[in-house]
What does this fold into?
Amino acid sequence: MAQALEGEPDVEMILGLGTNEPRVPLERTEFVRSDQKYSILNRIVRATQVDTIVHTFLETNSVNVPSRVLHEINVIGTLNLLAAAGTSGSSVRQVVVKSSTHVYGAAKTDPAWFDEEMERTGPITTRLERSLIEVEALVRDFAEDNPHLIVSVLRFANVLGTDIITPISHNLRRRLLPTIAGFDPLVQFVEEDDVVRSSSTSPDARSPASSTSPGRQAPLERGGLHLWRVPLFLPPVKARAFSAPLRRLRAIQFPPEMEGLIRFGRGVDTSKLIEAGFDFRYTSAGAVQSFAQANNLRRSTGPDGPAYRYEQDVEQFFRHSPAVVKGIEG
It folds into this structure.
């Protein structure tokens, strides 16, 4: 997201905040290594006079995230961020929140397509879904209390891409995708580049917008057979219990929120985002094809090269030292 914003000439200042250092080269983006404590967020908002906040740190994968940590990151972190954005005298004029279609759940009573105004039809069954629903409730209250702000929620479907790792992409890279015997669900995918682009093209709306590649859903089994060699069929009853040995061996990722998806599937409408002017570069099938091509290339060329290492002192030298002749250091 920061790299994409650096290419926008009308964006004067970009500030990234997180507990992990950047994994990609950044030229104009300032980075602050910090957690989501209110005191820090409030000071940063006041000091920078930032006008737009893109909230991207919601955890949408419960693998290896303890329940308490998940709640701290998603719910408490969002609460602190919104409090900093809405404090008296704040310069913030727009807030964009990256959420997930997990808020709809996946149940046999679901409609073929969810639109943005629909509620989930089944009970909340996982801690991840509960935390995301709590987050969106906080955002709704924040928008009602701050009618002068543009507040947008983007619910992303299953993301595939060359860099992002999700439970589905983790399994596909190992040629093994859990499938529940007797079920052939319809699912949607969104390519990671469209995720980044849609986050900066959020609609001026008071209700969530779904971001998933347009077009009909693809059957999970038929749509991905060319990506793996050994389908893993799980029984319809106690599927997670039967998958436990493979999960302990880290051969697959199968978080609780994935079970309903591969059993019943999920489809969401994207008309609100398209009406706001966003043009998807990838269809759902195109996102799968792009991932397959990148995965095959990775297998042919071997492991990736050394990861980018963020050297904060070096970055600060090039940005602020009077010894650097501007325009030549890069």
Observations:
- The longest helix spans residues 67-85.
- The mean pLDDT is 85.
